[in-house]
Amino acid sequence: MDINSLLSPQDSPAPGTPPAAALRSPSLQQSPAHRSLRQHPPSRTPSNVGQPTSAYHTPTPPTLQPSVAASLNSRPLHGATSTPPVESHARIASPHDAHQTPPHHLLRQTSLRMETLADLASSMQHQQATSRQGTNTPQATQTQPSSRPSLGSLPSIPRSISGASGVDTIMTDARTFTALALDETSRAAAVEYDQKLVDTSRRDYSSHVGLVTVLHNGFQKLLQDAPSPATGGPVHDARLLDLQSVLRDAYENMAKYYALGEQLWQRRLEDAQATARTLEDHVHVLELYTKATEEEPRSSKIWASYATYCRYLVDVDPSSWREDDRDAAPELFTHGLLAGTLQDGARRVEDDLAEGNLVWDQYLDLLTDDLERAFDAGKLQDVTQAFLARLSKPHATWNETFGRYSSFVSRYNSERYEDIMQTATSHYAKIKEQYEHRRDHEFNLLQAAHGGDVNVEYAAMTEYIEWEKKTLGQFSLATVNGLYERAHLRFPEYAVLWEDHIHFLHKHSNRSIPEPFEDLVQRAVQHCPWSGYLWALRLTTAEKNGKDYEAIEDIKHSATKTGVLGYTDPEGLVQLEMAWCGYLLRRASNATEDQEDKENNFEMAIRSALELVQKSAPKWNDPQYRLARLYIKFHTVRHSPNHDEARSIWKQLTPHHCNETDFWHRYYTFEMVLGNTSHGLQPKEATLVLENALQYLETLDRPEQLIDIYTNHCNHHESVEKLQSATIEQRQAELLVARRRQREAVAQYAAATREHEMRLQEATMRDAPESEHQPQQELMEIDDPSTQTLKRTHDAATYGGAGEIDDTMSEAHSTKSAGREKRDREHALVVVSGLPEDIQLVQIRKFFSEAGTVKDIHFRDVDGRKFALVEFDEPDAADFAIARAESKNRIGDHELSIKPGQGTMLFVSNYPPVTTEQDIRKLFGRFGTILEVRFPSLKLNVTRRFCYIQFASQEEAAAAREMDGQKIGEGDDTGALIAKISDPNARKQRQGATEEGRELFIRHINFAMTAANLREEFGKFGPIEAVKLPIRGDGKNKGFGYVTYKDKKHADMAVTKMHGTKVWGLDLIVEISKPPATKHRGTFVNESGVGGEELAPAPVRERSLYVLDVPDTVNLAQIEQLAKPFKYKRINLLPKKQGAIIELHDVKDMAAARLTIDDFEIMPGRKLRLGSGAELKRSTEEYRPSYNPALSKKHNQPGKQPPQVSNFQPNTTFRKTKFAAMPGRKPDWGSQAEKAAEAGQEPSKTNADFRTMLFGKKD
Q: Would 787-985 and 993-1072 be classified into the same CATH topology?
C-alpha cells in the first residue's frame, strides 16, 4: 500500500523514523510544554469568508461511549462494525457553548499516531491485490459500502487529507438534487445555494456554508430514520450513501477556497464517523482529524473528539474486524496512537483557559491509568511533571486539577504529602489568582454566547483582549496570545482580529513568543484570504526570513489563483501586488548577476499587476496610484534608466488625478529629482509641470498650496524673466482662488443657515405643546419656585450622565446654536511654547498673520513657562503655520516651539457630577502639563457632563487615555470614565430605544403598581428590554413610566392595544416616547424628606435663597452639594440667568445657609452672592468675549456671523475692484485693514479708529 494514500506529503514521516511501541516512549516522558516542534508548510490554498461562521448553527458532533477515565485494560470491547456512539461526551459543537476556545496554530510535532499509520501502510501492501468481495467474513459482507473505494484502489485515486485536488477541477454547472433524500424545502434551498455558487464561480462563502448545512442536516435526519445495524445497518441504505457522496463533494469544494473552521470541521467529522465501518473508513476519519488539527491546532473541542475517537478504535474487539483487516487493525489502532494524540493536543491547548481541560483531563487520566497498571519510577516522575505543568497554567478547572493532584500525591507520596501540598499551594497561589482576575470576563463571554447576539459576543471578546493587553505582565504573553486564538476560532473571518494579533506579537517580538510569527501570518491568510493586507504581510515576512524566489512566488500565486482576492474589493489586490512587485524591484536592484533578466521579470510582473487590477475593477482608480508610482521608480533606478517612459506614465495619470495637489507635488518632485539643478541649470520640466497644474485652480483641492509652491520654485530656480512672469501669474491665480473661496463660503453659509432653520423649525414643532408659554413660566418660577411643575425626565437626567454624551460630545459640535458654523478647534489649533514673558497679543497675531486669520489666542503660564494656544479660522492655516515653523520660529531672541493642537486635547466625560476643575487637574495632572480645562456652558443643556483638557503635547494627551474605562467616585451616578482624544468628526447621532421608536411613555399609572406589574401587563405584546418606573420617597410610583421593547413593531402594537385601556382602575395613556427636548434649566427635588416637616411651613419666598453670579459651567450637582447641609426641599438651576434658587424646608436654616453660600468661591476667581428674586429676574446670560477681538461687534453676535473667506488673500486691499463691492454685500474694510497691518503695510491715516481697536492705544 502506498503511504500517500494514507498521508499527505507534508505528513510523511522522515526516513528511518522508528515506529511507536509502548506508552513508555520518550515523547511521553516529557511535559507537553517541553517537547520539540517540527514545521510543516500549509497544505492548501486558503480562501475568503463572506459572512461570520458564527451565523450558522452547529449540531452536536459524534463522541464516543467509553469513559475517558477508565483503564485501557478494564474497558469493555466492542465490534469494529458498530457505530461510534455520539451522546456520551460533553457538547463540543455548539457555537454558544459555555466556553468557546478558538484554535492556536503550532507547528506539527513528530507524532506516534502518524508514524503508526506509516508502518501500517507498509505492512498492508500485500493486501492491495486482494478483492474485498472475496472475503468470507459475514461482517465484511454486511459493512462494506458499495460506493466506497477499496483500500487497494487508493493508490490509483489520489486523495490528500483535505480531499482537494485544485481549483481547476471545480464544477462550473449547477447540480441537481432531485434524486437525494431531502424534503422539498431542503432540496429547493440546496438548488438555490448551488446556483449562486455557479454564478459566483464558487467564491460565495455564505452559499458554501448554506449548502453544506442543508446537506448535513438532511444526512443527520436520514441517519436517524435509517435501519439500525442489527437489521442491516445504515451502510446499505442507498439514499444515505448517495447523500453522503454529495455532502463529501460539498465539503471538498468548499475546502478548495476556504478554511472550514472549527464548527464546520466538527460537522464534517461527525458525518464521516457516522458510516465508518471498515478499516479503510476509520483510516479516512483519522486523516480528516489530522487535517482538522492542522488547520485548527488550538481547538480543544476537536482534540478532545479526536482522542475519544482514538480511544474507541483502541477498544475495538480484534475478532470483530474483517478477516483481511484483523491483523492490521490492532497494529494501527494502538495505545501509542491514543497517547500521541493526547500528548500533542495537551501541548497545543495548554493556554486555553476555558476548555483546555477537555483534553488535559483525558491526558492526565491516561498517564495515571498507565502508572496504576504498571508502576515505574520514571513514569511517576512523568506524571508528576504533567500535573505541575498543568497547575502552572491558569484555567477554569484549576481547583479540580489541584484536587486530582492532591489525590495523586496522597497515593504515591503519602509520607511527604503535607510538605508537598503546602509548597504547591504557596507556589501556585498566583496562578490560581490569575484566573480569578479573569472570571468576570469569562462570565461575560459565556453570557454573550448564550444570548445569541454575535455583535455582543464580539464586543465582549474584544473588551477582554484589550483588558489583557492593558494589564500585560512579564509572563502573560502566552495568555494574551491564547485569548487571541480563542477569538480567531469564534470569529475566524474577522481580519481585524488577525491583524491586531500579528501587530501584538510583532510589538513584543523581542520576547519569547508562543509560536513562530510566520506561521501566524500563514494561518491568517488561510482564514481571511480576501485580505490583501494579510497576504502582503505574508510575502514580506517570507522575504524577511530569507525564503527563495520560488517560495515567495508560490505564495503570490496561492493568493490569486482562486480569484477570491479582489473579488469584491480591489484594494486588497493592490496591496498584494504592491508587496509582490516591491519584492521583485528590490531583487532586481540588489542583484549582482542576471540583473537584466530580473528587471525584465519585474516589468512583466508590474504590467501584469496593472492589467489584473484594471480587469478586476474597470471603473476603479487607485487614489494613490501606487503601482504606477512603483513602475515610475523602476524606470528611474533600472540599469538603463528610461526617463521618457516614466514621464509618459505621469502624463497618463494626469486626467485621473489633475484635481489633486498631492499628485502635482509628486510629479513636480519627480522632475526636480531628475533635473540637474546642482549645476545651475533651470529645471524647465518641473516648471512646466507647475504651470500645467495652475490650469486647474478652479477644481484643485488645495490651490493655495500649489500657488505657493510655484512662487517659491520660480524664486529659487528660474530666471528673472520667468520670475517676473510668474509674479503676474501669481496675482491672477490668487484673484481667481479668492473669488472661488468667496463663492464657496457664501454657498456654505447659506446651506448652513437653511439647515439650522430647518432644525429649529422641527424642534419648535416637536416641543410646541411644552414650550409655548415658556418665557412667562420661567419668570413665574423665579418669583415662586413652588409653582414649578415636574417635567418628563429620564431616570439618569437628574444630573446628566453618559446618556447625554452622544448629543453633547463637544460644545463646538452642537449644531443648535443659532447661525453658528461648526467649530473645529482641535484641527485649527497650534500650541506655542518658548515665549518671552512680556509677549503681547499683537505680536502673536502679527507672527501668524501670514498663515491665516487668527481666531483666538490664550496665554497660559504653567510652572514658569509661557504657552500660547493659537486658534485659526480653518485647519489649513494651522497646518501652514506648523510647516512654516521650520524656517521661521523666532520672536526676538526667543526660539519658539510650534506644535499641532490636533491630538493634544482630551475629551473627558462620565465623571462624578460634583467634579470640579481642581479635581480634574489633580486626576490628570500626573500625565503631563495641563494648559487649561474647559467645561461646557449649560445654557443650552443643563444635563451636560463633560470637559476638555488641553495638554501641552500629543504624547501627554495620549498617555492620559489610560484613564479611559476607569471608575472615578462612588455611587450609581458614576460609571466608567470616558477619556478620549477629542475629534469633532467623531460625533455620533443619538442612538437608542427612544430614537428607534421602541420606548413607550405611559401615564396615568395606578400608584400601587410595580415595575413587575407593568412588565406583566405589557409583556404579552413582545419581548421587553427594560421597564422604568420612577419611585417616590414613600415607595410608590410617580404615575408614569417607560417600557422598552426589543422590536419597534411590538411597541406599535402595544400602543394600539393599551392606549385608553383600563388597568388597575385607571385608563392608561400610552404613546411612543419622543427624544427629550434640550433642557435650559434644571430642577432637583429632595424627595427623601427630612424626617418631619413643619405643620405650617413659612411662605416659599421666606424659605428661598436667590443665588446670583453662578457660572454657567456649574451644574446642578455642585449646587446641591453646597445646599445639602441645610435640609433643602428644591433646587432650581437657571444657567441663562447665571443663578439658582434654593428652597429650604425650614426658615430657621436660612441664616446658616446665607453665611455659607454668600461669597462662597464656587470656582477659582468666581464667588457666589445672594440677592433678591427681582435681581435674579433681571440677570442675563454670561457674557463671553469674542474669540476674534479684531472682528466688529456685529459679527460677534450669535447667529449673525458672516461667511468666512479663505485666509489666503491676494496681496492687495481690493479697494477699487468689483470684487470688493459685490452686490448685496458691503466691503469688509476692517478685515482688509487688519491684513494690511499684519503684512507690515502702513494702513491709511483715515483708519485711525480701526487701528486703535486692533492694536490698542499707544502710550
A: yes
pLDDT attached to residue 28: 28
Coil, helix or strand for 1128? strand
Looking at residue 1025, the DSSP 8-state letter turns out to be E
Q: Are the CB atoms for 1013 and 1006 separated by under 8 Å?
A: no
User: Looking at residues 1022-1026, what average pLDDT do you find?
Assistant: 89
Is residue 1022 within 8 Å of residue 1053, measured between CB atoms? yes
Alpha-carbon span 283 to 292, nearest angstrom: 14
- pTM as predicted: 0.53
Q: Where are the domains of the chain?
A: 773-786+1079-1090+1101-1178, 787-985, 993-1072, 1193-1255
Q: Which residues of 816-836 are buried (b: 16+ CB within 10 A; e: fewer)?
A: ebeebbebbbbbbbbbbbbbe
C-alpha 1254/C-alpha 842 separation (Å) is 8
35-39, 75-79, 86-90, 496-500 — which is least confidently predicted?
35-39
pLDDT of residue 92: 32
- pLDDT confidence band for 1141 (50 / 70 / 90): very high
Torsional sign, CA 12, 16, 20, 25: negative
Confirm if 104 and 332 have CB atoms less than 8 A apart.
no
Secondary structure string (H, E, C) spanning 687-703? HHHHHHHHHHCCCCCCH
Q: At residue 909, what are phi and psi to the nearest 5 degrees?
A: -150, 175
The CATH classification of domain 787-985, taken from the options 3.30.70.360, 3.30.450.190, 3.30.70.330, 3.40.50.20? 3.30.70.330
**Cα 105 from Cα 260, distance rounded (Å):** 14
CATH architecture of the domain with range 773-786+1079-1090+1101-1178: 2-Layer Sandwich (3.30)
For residue range 1210-1230, what is the model confidence (pLDDT) as tens digits?
Answer: 343 333 333 333 344 444 434
* Model pLDDT for residues 58-77, shown as the tens digit of each residue: 333 333 333 333 333 344 55
SS3 content of the chain, % helix, strand, coil (to 5): 55, 10, 40
Strand-pair partners of 950: 905, 932
pLDDT for 703 equals 94
Q: Which residue has the cell 478548495?
A: 256
Q: Report the alpha-carbon distance of residue 625 to residue 637 in Å, rounded.
A: 19
| Inter-residue contact 1043 to 1018 (CB < 8 Å) | yes
3-state secondary structure of 555: helix
Strand segments (E) across 1049-1194: 1062-1063, 1066-1067, 1069-1072, 1082-1085, 1104-1108, 1128-1134, 1139-1144, 1161-1163, 1166-1167, 1169-1171
Residue whose C-alpha is closest to residue 131's, from 123, 141, 122, 120:
141
d(CA 1001, CA 1043): 7
Residue-wise burial string across 1105-1142, b where 16 or more C-beta atoms lie within 10 A, e elsewhere:
bbbbebbbbbbbbbbbebbeebbbbbbbbbbbbbbbbb
How many other β-carbons are positioned within 10 Å of the β-carbon of residue 487?
24
Please report, as a single letter, which amino acid is at residue 892: G
Which cell numbers in the block locate residue 905?
486635547
What's the CATH fold of domain 993-1072? Alpha-Beta Plaits (3.30.70)
Q: How far apart are CA 488 and CA 520, in angstroms?
A: 11
Give residue 888's pLDDT. Answer: 78
Instruction: Convert the pLDDT of each residue in 681-722 to its tens digit.
Output: 788 899 999 999 999 999 999 999 999 999 999 998 888 888
Mean pLDDT of the chain: 74
Strand arrangement of the beta sheet that strand 930-934 belongs to: 930-934, 946-951, 905-909, 978-981
Q: What is the pLDDT of residues 316-325, one digit of tens each?
A: 888 888 888 8
Distances (CA, A) of 911 to 472, 882, 915, 1085: 26, 34, 7, 22
pLDDT of res. 433: 87
Q: What phi-psi label fits residue 1062: left (phi over 0), alpha (psi between -120 and 50 degrees) or beta?
A: beta
Beta-carbon contacts of residue 520 (< 8 Å; ≥ 6 apart): 105, 501, 502, 505
